[in-house]
Amino acid sequence: MTQTSDILIVGGGLAGPSLALALAQQGLTVTIIDALPAETRADGGFDGRSYALSLASHRLLRALGLWGDLADKAQPMLEIKVTDGRAGEGPAPFWMHFDHAEIEEGPMGYMVEDRHLRPVLLAAMAAEPNITQISGRAATDQAVDSTGVTVTLDNGDTLRTRLLVGADGRRSGVQARAGIKRSGWDYNQTALVCAIEHELAHNGIAHQFFMPPGPLAILPLKGNVSSIVWSERTDQAAAINALDDASYIEVLRPRFGDFLGEIRLAGKRFTYPLNITIANSFVAERVALIGDAAHGVHPIAGQGLNAGLKDVGALAEVLIDAQRRGEDIASPFVLDRYQEWRRFDATSMALAMDAFNKLFSNDNPLLRIGRDLGMGVVNALPRLRRTFIREAAGLTGDVPRLLRGERL
Amino acid sequence: MQAQQTTVDANEVAKFEAMAAEWWDPNGKFKPLHMLNPCRLEYITSQIAGEFGLDRSVAKPFEGLRLLDIGCGGGLLSEPMARLGATVVGADAAERNLPVARIHAEQSGLEIDYRHTTAEAMAAAGEQFDVVLNMEVVEHVADPQAYLDACQQLLKPGGLMICSTINRNAKSFAMAIVGAEYVMRWLPKGTHEWNKFITPDELCALISKAGLTPVDRTGFVFNPITWGWSLSSRDLSVNYVTASTKPS
């Protein structure tokens, strides 16, 4: 039996459900397919990541009516300190300091844990009558014709839609089946992710240390807890991850010193291999790609989810505007507007993160002096510093309505 | 059906017939019209919703409205209007446009009554509509006043006509003819004749003389930096659109 909806989203991560809610709230019918069973998604220990939500992402979640349930679990990020460091040494004399007091919009962003964000999205989708969720099923085939797309699932069921959206991550099946190729490379870096409890208060300050093997981020969560994202060369990361908890902490401790007092592990440890991978096109006939399916980036500045939510804001706005004008929402004219809006921005952001990583994951003494001076210059110039803060907060460029906190 | 008694200029019809098959090709000859279309639709849908007090957030806000699209071509405006719920008649004097429009509407799952006829013939037959779309037509007709008189007759009392065309000044000559036809090759050479262009004041005078009340005039402005069109209440120097109502 074939079920029909305006939009069919493949992928149950964070971008897919956000888009489903944005469109369903405006009257479109949405079916969302998640290859993972619902119980796996709902399990708090499933994904150990935390997200640095930019101010713009926070506004999008608020406009979708999700912030009420997240507010008391989100830690405002009040300051960001960026330092060039080397394991066992103090910070270099030059550093950058970004303080939210320099811009008028409020905190630069919020830290939210995956285990808090996910249940809010799942509950909101369950409460939305225009959304049909299918979990534990994979899409195996898609056939495009002049009026729509027929998608086949791994149990043989078929679904019919006007527009197919791939939100299925860096190895997107929707993208591959649409004949879109990807470009990218591996970094030979792996992110080690964990949460730590610490003796002293973090005061809402996020720290980014640039170390030769890769960046280390200390991101403030609620209470005296911080999320650690720690990139190492892949062989090194495997060796560290094989250690027991006590030895793991012993390796971590000298990397950021004692400014938070005593530290200990809080919860499980996770590893994520790092790469950059960009789809050569974000659209095809009756197909659009969002989030990591369109652009998987290095997490060096925590911009992956924020970029995915920018896709959500842009695609939802393009589709709803088209719908209200009576256009075919999946026509090439409409989809090209999304691609033009996002592709240049997303690609240049991905390449900037790549360049950042290459510049900082390096022990060359000349580069080190250069980047230290660069940071000193940025730090000394208030206007440039404010530009960085606004960029990190997602407040620059042609911002979709949802990311300005407005309704569609 | 034979297009009878008409103000349509025979040479103009032949020019568009030659282009008809290309209507729905995203990268074809009608690309500039497709680029302008969202801007035109934004104006048309907001004017209709405003005039008839309709809620644009529902799926089919124009349900119950009878709408005529004159010079419908491949159906670039007729299809969106049908999708929004209007009962649409698409009329074109170029016979070859109609099979293209009919095939495309069927592929899109839309019901649209496409006819090979003219505004004058339909007015003579006593047809009436809530909305008449009269977009980029008036600069191609032989007698604009006779044509607008026919449009007036086609409106029900209280009905709305949207009429767009191209201004006549040095800039519009540079943009619409030299720029669009010769430099950018957006439109085939000879698509427009500059002396048929009409200023907003002239158009509103013709509309008033036909018995309609002009209620709005707005510019369609092309921005070469963003490579897109937008609406402007101040800049009507090249492409512009007007809304007028028929007194009830």
Measured by residues with Cβ under 8 Å of the partner chain's Cβ, the largest interface is: A-B, 16 and 20 residues
- Helix percentage of chain A: 25-40%
Known CATH architecture of the largest domain in chain A: 3-Layer(bba) Sandwich
What CATH calls the topology of the largest domain in chain A is: FAD/NAD(P)-binding domain
Q: Report the CATH architecture of chain B.
A: 3-Layer(aba) Sandwich
Biggest sheet of chain B, in brief? 8 strands, mixed
> How much beta of chain A, percentage-wise?
25-35%
Report how far apart the termini of chain B are: 33 Å
In terms of quaternary structure, the protein is heterodimer
Overall mean pLDDT of chain B? 87
User: What is the string of helix and strand elements of chain B?
Assistant: HHEHEHEHEHEHHEEE
- Whole-number total of structural domains of chain A: 2
Helix share bin of chain B? 25-40%
Largest sheet of chain A: 9 strands, mixed
The secondary-structure class of chain A comes to: alpha+beta
Pfam families (chain A): FAD_binding_3
Organism (chain A): Donghicola mangrovi
Cofactor (chain A): FAD
Keywords (chain A): FAD, Flavoprotein, Monooxygenase, Oxidoreductase
Describe the structure.
The complex is a heterodimer of chains A (408) and B (248). Chain A is an alpha+beta fold and 408 residues long. Helices cover 34% and strands 30% of the residues of chain A. In chain A, strands 5, 6, 12, 13, 14, 15, 16, 17 and 20 form a nine-stranded mixed β-sheet that branches. Chain B is an alpha/beta fold. Chain B has eight helices and eight strands. An eight-stranded mixed β-sheet of chain B has the order 3-2-1-4-5-8-6-7. Chain B starts with 9 loop residues before the first helix and ends with a strand. Chains A and B meet through helix 8 and helix 9 of A and helix 2 and helix 3 of B. Chain A: Pfam families: FAD_binding_3. Chain A: Pathway: Cofactor biosynthesis; ubiquinone biosynthesis. Chain A: It comes from Donghicola mangrovi.
